[in-house]
Automatic annotation (TrEMBL):
Keywords: Membrane, Transmembrane, Transmembrane helix
Cross-referenced NCBIfam families: Bac_Flav_CT_K
Listed transmembrane segments: 15-35
Protein name from the UniProt record: Conjugative transposon protein TraK
Superkingdom of source: Bacteria
Organism: Flavobacterium hydrocarbonoxydans
InterPro entries linked: Conjug_transposon_TraK
């Protein structure tokens, strides 16, 4: 009788131990599955698929701080290309300058107003002059805020009989603002001024 009770007790203990082991294993597997699921969802949320020319391209989302140098340089380049790319067409000039002025404060507006008052844009239209700009480099100082920048570029002024090349160096600060369709990078150029703008060379057109 006692032997049977002892055997039953021992069997119950084995069953209980095995059951606890199974339950513990299930809990560990469930926790691991949940962890991997959340990890996978988090990774998938950082992925973006872009459709370009009929092809799906995979891109990864990242924090703004990781992209500040790239976005800041592109903001400065975009502003200078819009502000200094001119053709003998009043609508083209107004369109480009208007887009550029969304990217800067009143320091750029003052430069535009001075050029307009001095007849610079009228001279471009009447003389059939085109102006392009090539950005050589942009340096950004991320050690202080607002971020200081300096832009090195070459202007090409194309006239009927000649092409003039001018060296252009400007500087200013970049302040964070809200992103918008008119300002996709979320920066605003402040205290923009020209340090140097001088002729490098002139060549005759054939």
């Amino acid at each position: 009788m006692f032997s049977k009770m002892k055997n039953i007790d021992t069997a119950f203990r084995h069953v209980r131990g095995f059951t606890m082991l199974v339950i513990t294993g299930c809990i560990l597997i469930s926790c691991f599955s949940l962890y991997k699921s959340f990890s996978l969802v988090s990774k998938m949320q950082n992925k973006v698929y872009i459709l370009a020319n009929g092809k799906a391209l995979e891109a990864y989302a990242s924090d703004r701080k990781d992209n500040i140098p790239v976005e800041a340089r592109d903001h400065v380049k975009t502003f200078h290309k819009l502000f200094f790319t001119l053709d003998p067409d009043d609508k083209v000039i107004k369109s480009n300058v208007t887009k550029a002025l969304y990217l800067a404060d009143d320091s750029a507006k003052r430069v535009y107003d001075d050029l307009k008052e001095n007849g610079y844009y009228s001279g471009i239209i009447s003389g059939n002059v085109s102006q392009t700009i090539q950005i050589d480099s942009v340096t950004i100082d991320l050690n202080r805020y607002p971020y200081g920048f300096r832009c090195y570029a070459t202007q090409n002024i194309i006239r009927t009989t000649s092409i003039a090349h001018r060296n252009l160096i400007t500087e200013g600060n970049l302040r964070n603002v809200s992103r918008s369709d008119n300002n996709p990078h979320g920066f605003l150029i402040e205290r923009w001024n020209t340090i140097e703008n001088r002729d490098i060379s002139t060549e005759n057109r054939k």
